[in-house]
Design goal:
This protein is an all-alpha fold. It has helices at about 1-20, 20-45, 50-60, 65-100, 115-125, 135-155, 165-190, 190-200, 210-225, 230-235, 240-245, 250-270, 275-290, 295-320, 325-350. One of its GO terms (biological process) is siderophore-iron import into cell.
């Protein structure tokens, strides 16, 4: 059994990589081009509408007297860039969590991480209303850590009784508890309207300063995820195999957890709680790219960005001139996907 797993790792890291390198590169190029197209579509769509030429002119030949140029540069472009950052961050965070936690159903929204981040942001909005956006982001990352600790604590991780289903149930309970606390605080202090819209996952109102503050931290998280991608490939084969191959299992898990908290916390501070994206994208990319995480991680970056951009476009068109929260649209796609995975895992367990 051990030899079979070692051969599988060797095939993934070397044999399959060499044979399919051209395929991987072609897919990455395609995803990049689709991301660029989705970006321009997102910037062009709005109540006033605009053309690609107008977007290009606003970037190259900005006219301060043009209302459309101002809308594109100051409102739509930051929003589109925010969608790219959030989509990439949540997708990579999900891919890392599914390996580090040995749970194919892992997602920041399902394990209490988003709820923990949202809880701390609600506290910051009420008790530290003058705090800067960087401070809000710090609160969000700290809250993500609290949500993670509570979820793993209630799931029995300390007694090594943890299972994917137990973890999801614990995450659901923690999410419900922290969300209820957040709503209670917001109702008591009169911030419920702003908080409820933000918690539903929205890119509306993003500005350049928010994007510029979160971008370096999200990029750092993406680089950390890429840096441990080869280790994640080995770790995905199981702890026993990883140890036999000399992989630093505990260090990989620690870096993976820190990276996940950084990506999830900054994303929540930027766009609120968005669930299921980190579940959907890694599964799709593994189907296409295979089990090599040095390919899955970059592909997830682009795929997550594309889904977020398109979901935001649909959200603006669905009930124009009002915005439909992007988190709600992603959940409409993600919930059936999650239920399908749960059913599949249950069938696999019965067959064993």
């Amino acid at each position: 059994m051990m030899m079979q797993k070692q051969e599988q790792v060797h095939r993934i890291l070397e044999g399959d990589s060499i044979k399919r390198r051209g395929f991987f590169e072609a897919i990455l190029v395609l995803l990049f081009l689709l991301t660029v197209m989705a970006f321009f579509l997102s910037v062009c769509v709005g109540v006033a509408g605009s053309s690609v030429q107008t977007v290009v002119d606003s970037l190259i030949h900005y006219d301060s007297s043009s209302t459309m140029h101002h809308v594109i540069r100051e409102l739509r472009i930051p929003r589109a860039l925010g969608a790219i950052l959030v989509g990439a961050a949540l997708s990579v965070a999900g891919a890392i969590m599914q390996v580090v936690g040995d749970n194919p159903l892992a997602d920041t929204g399902l394990l209490g991480i988003n709820a923990g981040a949202g809880f701390m942001v609600s506290l910051a909005m009420v008790f530290f209303s003058s705090v800067s956006f960087l401070g809000v982001m710090g609160f969000s990352v700290f809250g993500a850590a609290i949500g993670t600790v509570l979820t793993y604590g209630f799931s029995g991780a300390s007694k090594k009784r943890i299972t994917p289903v137990r973890l999801i149930l614990a995450g659901s309970a923690v999410s419900a508890f922290l969300t209820a606390l957040s709503q209670g605080i917001s109702l008591c202090f009169g911030t419920s309207k702003d908080l409820s819209y933000w918690q539903s996952g929205s890119l509306s109102g993003l500005r350049w300063n928010q994007v510029m503050i979160t971008a370096p931290w999200i990029l750092l998280g993406l680089l950390l995820g890429g840096g441990i991608s080869s280790g994640l490939t080995i770790l995905s084969m199981g702890d026993e195999t990883a140890v036999s191959l000399g992989a630093p299992v505990q260090r990989l898990r620690l870096i993976g957890i820190i990276t996940t908290l950084l990506l999830a916390g900054t994303s929540v501070s930027l766009a609120g709680g968005i669930s299921f994206l980190g579940l959907i994208v890694p599964h799709i990319m593994r189907k296409i790219m295979g089990g090599e995480y040095s390919k899955v991680i970059p592909a997830s970056v682009f795929c997550g960005a594309i889904i977020m951009l398109l979901a935001d476009v649909v959200g603006r068109m669905l009930n124009a001139p009002y915005d439909t929260p992007v988190g709600a649209l992603v959940s409409v796609i993600g919930l059936p996907f999650f239920l399908g995975l749960t059913y599949k895992k249950r069938g696999e367990k019965k067959s064993e």
